[in-house]
Structure formats: structure tokens, C-alpha cells
């Protein structure tokens, strides 16, 4: 039950209700693949690995047979919900109605939960694979040719153009089609400020079109930047900034955001604002995800 409404009591000062500073809406959901599922788990995608052609060297030779590698990615649902009560006596004392603001606040909370699921999955060490979901593909053991191809780090250094170049190099080395597959990088305020200090990102001498618009960098070097303060911290408390191709991540929806407003007779007819969602996320291919560690 909310005990904070009395701060909204008014004699006639305002008829508006403002939401305090917060991330509003999901920032990452549109930057990945999305599917709808039912059931307690779901096979997100069937995967077929690369094969090698056999050169024919003699006439009338036996047909060469190769085994095509198969794999699959699994995703599991996570439930989120929120509820709060509005006492009818409180609304009598407040000029503004809190119901719509409470609903809006609840929806923002659900959308942030969507981003938390996405960020939890992008560097997860428990990504479920295999035909029945019984195998685990660990982020820490993945590499394209060396153990650190997917990790871009420099001790005591924030976000730099060199790090972005290294991330793009790792993605291209993993055969990501950067001409058709949209690329994204998640950054916090500190990393955005780092890039503002890089001449290469802000000067028209190095860009064919303006990168800096209204003091904000939204894209550079083929990457679209998504700003969020919810990015995790990695080794040495450095910020883990993900760089990924859109086709490399999946957002799974069992139930999108659902909200209800209803009276509860058992609570003196207080109005309950309720919201829920059931969603999940998973990496689809490790080669399409890169971790950039940035000191703050």
C-alpha cells in the first residue's frame, strides 16, 4: 500500500502530477529480433552450422557426404508485476487524480524490466542451447579465434573510437553482414561524454554528415547508440557496454504489458493499480555480440 500520497495533498497549488526522473519505456526492445511464445519454455530458433564443399578431383567418383551441424537456442519466461493502492480519502484531499499517473508509472516499470531481461541475457553464462535445451553456452568461454576476440578492454580507459573499431572488427571477423544487419552499442552517460571528447566522432573533417545533433551522438561508424544507465558493471567495476548485431539477440514475449485499475472492497474500496508482463531474452549467436569494458 502506498504511504506516499499525502505529499500530493494540495490546497490549490497544482492540478498536474509529474513523474520523477526515470527511464521511460524500453530502450533495447526494438534493437533485437522479437517473437511471441506460449508454454513454460520455447525453442527460439533452429540453427544450422556452416558446411564445407568438397572439391571433385576424379570422374564418376562416389558422392561425398557431410554431416550438417545442428543446434538450437532456448528462451524461458520471467514474470514481473507491480501493484499499488490509492485510498479514496487521499484523492478527496488532492486536486489531481493519481490513477493515470500510477498506471503510466507502472508501465514504465514493466518496460524497464524488459531492458533488464535483455541486458541479463546479452552476457549470460547460462544461455541454453542444444536440441532439448540441456546444454549451456557460456559467454566467458566463447571466442572466434582467440579467447578475447569478443572482449574489448583497456585498463583505466573509457569509451574510445579505437574500442569501437575493435568491436566492429570482432563482429566482421565473425562474418556479421554489417551492410544489412543493423549494429548497436549500449552506452551510459559517462561513455557518451567520452565520445564527445573524441575529435573523430564530432568533427566533419572525419564524417560525411553531422554526427553531433543537439549535443548528442546517436550514431557513429555504423553503430547506433542506445543510452541507458542500467548497463551492468564487469571486471574491476568497469561498465560493460554491449555491441551487437540486431539478429544476434532475441526478445521473447509471452504476455506484453497488461494493466488494470480496479476497486478492492476488502481494502475499503481503495483503487488498485496493477501491471504485469511475462517476457524473456537470449543471445542467438555469440559471434554477433561484443563486450566493451569502459572505465568511469
Structural notes for this entry:
The protein has 296 residues and is of the alpha+beta class. The chain has a single domain, classed as phage-related protein like fold (Alpha-Beta Complex), CATH 3.90.1690. Helices cover 19% and strands 31% of the residues. It contains five helices and 16 strands. It has helices spanning 88-93, 99-122, 161-173, 189-196, 199-202; strands at 33-36, 42-48, 70-75, 78-86, 127-129, 135-137, 151-152, 183-187, 212-213, 216-217, 219-220, 223-227, 239-245, 249-264, 270-283, 289-294. The strands form five sheets. It has a six-stranded mixed sheet with strand order 7-16-13-8-12-11. Strands 1-14-15-4 form a four-stranded mixed sheet. A two-stranded antiparallel sheet has the order 2-3. It starts with 32 loop residues before the first strand and ends with a strand. Mean pLDDT is 81; it is low at 8-17.
Order of helices and strands: EEEEHHEEEHEHHEEEEEEEE
Dominant shape: flat
The percentage helix is 10-25%
CATH class designation: Alpha Beta
Spatially, the strands of the biggest sheet line up as: 7-16-13-8-12-11
Q: How many domains would you count in the coordinates?
A: 1
Category by helix and strand content: alpha+beta
**Oligomeric organization of the protein chains:** single chain
**How many angstroms does the end-to-end distance come to?**
38 Å
Give the radius of gyration.
Answer: 24 Å
Summarize the structure.
Helix content is 19%, strand content 31%.
What is the topological layout?
Elements: E1 33-36, E2 42-48, E3 70-75, E4 78-86, H1 88-93, H2 99-122, E5 127-129, E6 135-137, E7 151-152, H3 161-173, E8 183-187, H4 189-196, H5 199-202, E9 212-213, E10 216-217, E11 219-220, E12 223-227, E13 239-245, E14 249-264, E15 270-283, E16 289-294
Parallel strand pairs: 1-14, 7-16, 8-12
Antiparallel strand pairs: 2-3, 4-15, 5-6, 8-13, 9-10, 11-12, 13-16, 14-15
Amino acid at each position: 500500500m502506498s504511504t506516499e500520497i499525502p505529499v500530493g495533498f494540495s490546497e490549490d497549488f497544482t492540478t498536474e502530477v509529474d513523474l520523477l526522473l526515470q527511464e521511460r519505456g524500453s530502450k533495447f526492445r526494438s534493437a533485437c529480433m522479437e517473437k511471441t511464445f506460449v508454454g513454460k519454455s520455447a525453442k527460439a530458433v533452429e540453427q544450422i552450422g556452416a558446411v564445407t564443399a568438397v572439391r571433385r578431383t576424379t570422374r564418376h567418383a562416389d558422392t561425398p557426404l557431410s554431416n550438417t551441424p545442428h543446434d538450437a537456442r532456448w528462451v524461458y519466461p520471467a514474470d514481473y508485476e507491480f501493484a499499488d493502492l490509492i485510498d479514496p480519502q487521499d484523492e478527496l484531499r488532492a486536486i489531481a487524480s493519481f490513477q493515470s499517473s500510477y498506471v503510466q508509472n507502472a508501465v514504465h516499470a514493466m518496460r524497464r524490466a524488459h531492458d533488464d531481461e535483455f541486458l541479463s541475457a546479452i552476457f549470460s553464462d547460462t544461455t541454453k542451447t542444444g536440441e532439448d535445451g540441456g546444454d549451456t553456452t557460456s559467454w566467458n568461454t566463447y571466442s572466434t579465434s582467440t579467447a578475447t576476440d569478443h572482449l574489448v578492454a583497456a585498463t583505466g580507459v573509457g569509451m574510445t573510437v579505437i574500442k569501437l573499431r575493435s568491436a566492429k572488427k570482432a563482429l566482421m571477423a565473425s562474418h556479421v553482414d554489417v551492410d544489412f544487419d543493423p549494429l548497436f552499442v549500449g552506452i551510459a552517460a559517462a561513455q557518451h561524454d567520452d565520445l564527445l571528447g573524441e575529435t573523430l566522432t564530432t568533427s566533419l573533417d572525419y564524417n560525411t554528415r553531422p554526427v553531433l545533433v543537439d549535443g548528442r551522438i546517436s550514431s557513429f561508424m555504423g553503430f547506433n547508440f542506445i543510452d541507458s544507465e542500467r548497463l551492468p558493471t564487469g571486471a574491476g567495476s568497469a561498465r560493460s557496454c554491449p555491441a551487437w548485431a540486431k539478429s544476434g539477440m532475441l526478445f521473447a514475449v509471452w504476455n506484453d504489458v497488461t494493466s488494470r485499475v480496479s476497486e478492492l472492497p476488502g481494502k475499503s474500496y481503495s483503487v488498485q493499480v496493477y501491471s504485469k508482463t511475462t517476457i524473456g531474452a537470449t543471445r542467438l549467436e555469440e559471434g554477433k555480440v561484443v563486450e566493451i569494458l569502459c572505465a568511469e
